Amino acid sequence: MQANSNRSLWLTLITACLMCLSVLAPVQAADDVRRIEHALGVTEIQGTPQRIVTLYQGANDTAVALGVMPVGVVDSWVQKPMYHYLRDDLADVPHVGLETQPNLEEIAKLNPDLIIANKARHQEVYSQLSQIAPTVAEATVFDFKGTVKLMGEALNKQAEADQLLNDWDQRVATLQNELKASMGDNWPVSVAVTNIRNDHLRVYLEESFAGTVLHDLGFEFPNLSSQRTWGVKLNSKETIPSMNADVMFIIFQSQDGSVHENFEAWSSHPLWQNLDAAKNERIYDVDLVAWLMSGGIIGANNMMDQLYTHFDIQG
């Protein structure tokens, strides 16, 4: 009788425990749901996503930086299908179209559990993307630090994201100190980031990818706009004096003959020859991908590598 009594007691206890676990399980699952605030709203994400699709260049870059292998990526703008600096890491990842026109059907076939989008590119298709999988969006394509923060939170990799940003801040502080020591009383230096197109020029300012990096470092910019903006388009050579700066970085949009002919037409103009950067021979040709098209923290570090070279600082 005693044995049967003990057995009944244990069965009762086990049943009670199982009932408790069944009650607690939904609570634990609910606790595992994270609410991510982003540029297009609030998205609930269950657990740690394993199958992510990245829909803009900075997100492709940041996935690699965070050690995450996407199941789908968008095509690069140049060096297709993927920028050389990311090609080894993303060589076998399926492509889902252009950043400006992602293929929703192909995305759905990949069965993602998270989509990384961008308000500037995907606002009109956000609801459709959200029907495929939970979708978060960064506000702009140039804010590489914002992309790191958003993806770190969404991917449950906050520690890794924080480390990337801390490493960036330390590298910025180091180069800034070296620039100050090198330039002395001439610091801060003004810079004009000039993108050569086949029919006009663009000068990028603080609210651009290159501008964000240079602003972090303490560089100044030409006074081309009354408000913070990505930059301005220059169509007339009479506007050349407005882009005056101590240093000019030239980004050729392509190697097409028409682009280089346009540069020759502008750079041979007397007003160009009177620019401080031209008179001081401080005009540098820089990499299109690193300075304009990468959009991510790896690209930003590649850009900083070039700054060490152009300012003749040993990194």
Describe this structure as you would to a colleague.
The protein is of the alpha/beta class and 315 residues long. The protein has two domains: 133 residues, Rossmann fold (3-Layer(aba) Sandwich); 125 residues, Rossmann fold, CATH 3.40.50. The protein has 14 helices and 13 strands. The strands form four sheets. Strands 11-10-9-12-13 form a five-stranded mixed β-sheet. A four-stranded parallel β-sheet has the order 4-3-7-8, with helices on both faces. Strand 9 and strand 10 form a beta hairpin. The protein is globular, with a radius of gyration of 26 Å. The termini are far apart. The N terminus is likely disordered.
Main beta sheet: strand number and arrangement? Answer: 5 strands, mixed
Number of strands: 13
| Order of neighbouring strands in the sheet with most strands | 11-10-9-12-13
End-to-end C-alpha gap: 82 Å
Unreliable stretches (pLDDT < 50, length at least 5) are 1-30
Work out the radius of gyration: 26 Å
Helix vs. strand class: alpha/beta
Could you tell me the CATH topology label of the largest domain: Rossmann fold
GO biological process, one term: iron coordination entity transport
Keywords: Ion transport, Iron, Iron transport, Signal, Transport
Domain Fe/B12 periplasmic-binding: 51-315
Subcellular location: Cell envelope
